[in-house]
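STRUCTURE:
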């Protein structure tokens, strides 16, 4: 049995496993097997259709190239792909460098289509931690019977709850990468829309530094303009339970398709409700009004309304905390996977090549 968590640099293992009759299980952590952008965001601005492929994906990827490269790639489409590939190789030999990297996108399309055709033979099972990832693989042509929905488990345990803070003041926390897709700017904008007299604070645990990036600078300026927002720096895994013990709710304002955010699983394990965008991966874990509140993805005003409710309705905080149920442990998930392994049929072993 070969179980892969991601495919970066590991695709060469698939034909070897097939030759030896070794079943391969893939835990689908990302979209990269079919999405060349990795994030499943169309043109880096909005969540993509789950079944989009082909030329639309080429155009999306070409947005990362210069205007001249996009123009050259559009012209090259007039040629059959083998001619385009041969012409690019010839120009590279003559010019001493590859001056048309955008042309590779048609070749990537062929590679992805080949992976799609081979998918059923390559994988005995795919573990999807979210309904979103399951739906994505099915939309891309994977056999639905090969997809198994298994939540992440966690062994994070709750830290001691702070007892000295005034219960009247709402405390929120964010934990995540300083990545635009994680939506820190949406959180900041939501806070800025709320009246200053509302008594709450937001601790942002993220590695936002003066690294020269436009996004980091945008977030720093937004935080500097509102004392209710505080940059706390990143939190270690060991320190996460203590950080979560200091908040009434975790905020997850992601603006992309989340698979199954581990930080939500960890928050629920610590008994902390979650305020999050309605990305399908979030919705697998958070029930609006039960163990958290949800708002439309990317909608700062809707998030602001969620925060205001928590400030003005302390009883709602208690209700949501009482609605939190612990997620499965890693041991429980491991037992589920072992049962799945045992039930998988062993693939046919390819005959060894004849000796010369």
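SEQUENCE:
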């Amino acid at each position: 049995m070969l179980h892969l968590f991601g495919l970066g640099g590991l695709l060469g293992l698939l034909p070897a496993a097939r030759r030896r009759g070794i079943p391969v299980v893939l835990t689908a952590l990302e979209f990269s097997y079919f999405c060349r952008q990795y994030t499943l965001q169309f043109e880096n601005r909005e969540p993509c259709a789950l079944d989009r492929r082909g030329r639309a994906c080429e155009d999306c990827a070409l947005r990362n190239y210069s205007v001249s490269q996009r123009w050259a790639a559009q012209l090259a489409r007039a040629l059959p792909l083998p001619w385009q590939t041969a012409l690019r190789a010839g120009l590279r030999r003559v010019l001493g460098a590859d001056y048309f990297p955008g042309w590779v996108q048609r070749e990537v399309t062929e590679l992805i289509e080949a992976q799609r055709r081979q998918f059923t033979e390559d994988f005995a099972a795919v573990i999807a931690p979210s309904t979103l990832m399951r739906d994505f693989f099915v939309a891309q042509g994977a056999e639905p019977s090969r997809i198994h929905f298994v939540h992440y488990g966690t062994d994070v345990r709750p830290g001691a709850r702070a007892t000295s803070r005034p219960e009247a003041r709402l405390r929120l926390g964010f934990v995540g990468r300083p990545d635009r897709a994680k939506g820190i700017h949406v959180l900041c904008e939501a806070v800025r829309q709320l009246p200053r007299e509302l008594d709450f604070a937001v601790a942002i645990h993220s590695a936002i530094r003066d690294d020269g990036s436009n996004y980091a600078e945008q977030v720093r300026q937004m935080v500097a303009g509102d004392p209710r927002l505080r940059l706390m720096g990143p939190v270690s895994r060991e320190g996460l339970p203590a950080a979560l013990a200091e908040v009434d709710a975790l905020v997850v304002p992601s603006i992309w398709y989340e698979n199954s955010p581990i930080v939500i699983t960890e928050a629920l394990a610590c008994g902390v409700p979650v305020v999050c965008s309605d990305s399908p991966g979030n919705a697998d874990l958070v029930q609006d009004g039960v163990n958290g509140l949800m708002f439309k993805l990317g909608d700062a005003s809707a998030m602001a309304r969620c925060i205001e409710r928590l400030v003005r309705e302390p009883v709602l905080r208690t209700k949501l905390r009482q609605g939190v149920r612990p997620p499965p442990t890693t041991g429980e998930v491991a037992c589920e996977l072992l049962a799945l392994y045992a039930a998988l049929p062993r693939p046919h072993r390819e005959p060894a090549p004849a000796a010369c």
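REMARK: The mean pLDDT is 88.
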